[in-house]
């Protein structure tokens, strides 16, 4: 039985990852300060005797003194607001968890000779000038704008990972995540799929920002979780940055139309000003994930949306 730490365990990805690892008979220690995570995300496994929850901010020094973090085998460092609606409300906390928090978790990994997977983001590519984005692309990020706290915080987190790999030979891997979704997404976090499905089911206007020609790629949560666990156990991923996402690309307007159709909604699609620094294209080159991990997504967008819509109907009380 492995002893595994998940930071940000009460978040969307963290709770899905914990459920998966517990199902494989691991001992999981979840850390969260509940700034954006929700305790209800833990309800399906909170009574599992192999699960321990510690309410703490991993960017604070006291995390280093937790006795529960001795003798651990693996760390998944997921803690961070991930939605623009949330990280722009708490920009300094967002920077801290991705820099100081990352260094703290790297130090704990070093102390335990443990493996660590750091969840970075496709946001490090900014508004990309090449398409699709591969891991060697250095990005086009604005350091002077409302998204910078997240983009640059994640980029500096990657630097810490690089240094601990190079200087201390720590078994660290960096996953750059591209738009993961499922019904587990909060429907108030402002992300495009949760927004569109909630609006469509409620019969509200579907709000598209800009003209809708900007593109995204969306990866269903089950595929993302599989990729993260493969990264952790594969030593060939040590010291590597790997894009994790689905290369099935769609424009925002086509996504809105598809959700409108799949929900059989009478909602109108309306257009609003594009937020500052919103990228025009975002799609991963996943060749490295295929080569190193033998991984590629299995669930296509329509199937994933149908699963998500079904669960959102239940969440919102629109079953039938």
UniProtKB/TrEMBL annotation:
It is found in: Golgi apparatus membrane; Golgi apparatus, Golgi stack membrane. GO terms for molecular function: NAD+ binding; UDP-glucuronate decarboxylase activity. GO terms for cellular component: cytoplasm. Keywords: Decarboxylase, Glycoprotein, Golgi apparatus, Lyase, Membrane, NAD, Signal-anchor, Transmembrane, Transmembrane helix. It holds the Pfam family Epimerase. The keyword Signal does not apply. GO terms for biological process: D-xylose metabolic process; UDP-D-xylose biosynthetic process. This is NAD-dependent dehydratase. It comes from Fictibacillus phosphorivorans.
């Amino acid at each position: 039985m492995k002893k595994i730490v998940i930071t940000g365990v009460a978040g969307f990805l963290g709770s899905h990852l914990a459920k998966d690892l517990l199902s494989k008979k691991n001992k999981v220690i979840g850390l969260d300060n509940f700034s954006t995570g929700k305790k209800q995300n833990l309800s399906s496994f909170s009574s599992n005797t192999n699960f321990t929850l510690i309410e703490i901010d991993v960017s604070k020094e006291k995390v280093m003194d937790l006795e529960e973090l001795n003798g651990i085998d693996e760390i998944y460092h997921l803690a961070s607001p991930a939605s623009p609606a949330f990280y722009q409300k708490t920009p300094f906390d967002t920077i801290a968890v991705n820099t100081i928090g990352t260094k703290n978790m790297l130090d704990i990994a070093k102390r335990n000779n443990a493996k660590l997977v750091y969840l970075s983001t496709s946001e490090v590519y900014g508004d990309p000038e090449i398409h699709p984005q591969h891991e060697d692309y250095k990005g086009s990020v604005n350091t002077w704008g409302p998204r910078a706290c997240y983009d640059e915080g994640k980029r500096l987190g990657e630097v810490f990972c690089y240094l601990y790999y190079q200087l201390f030979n720590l078994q660290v891997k960096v996953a750059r995540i591209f738009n993961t979704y499922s019904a587990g997404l909060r429907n108030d976090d402002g992300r495009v799929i949760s927004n569109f499905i909630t609006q469509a089911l409620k019969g509200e206007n579907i709000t598209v920002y800009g003209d809708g020609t900007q593109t995204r790629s969306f990866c269903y949560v089950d595929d993302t979780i599989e990729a993260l666990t493969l990264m952790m156990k594969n030593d060939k991923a040590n010291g590597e940055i790997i894009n994790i996402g689905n290369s099935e690309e769609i424009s925002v307007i086509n996504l809105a139309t598809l959700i409108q159709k799949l929900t059989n909604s009478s909602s109108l699609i309306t257009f609003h000003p594009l937020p500052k620094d919103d990228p025009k294209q975002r799609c991963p080159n996943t060749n490295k994930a295929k080569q190193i991990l033998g991984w590629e997504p299995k669930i296509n967008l329509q199937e994933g949306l149908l699963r998500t819509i079904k669960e959102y109907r239940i969440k919102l009380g629109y079953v039938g």
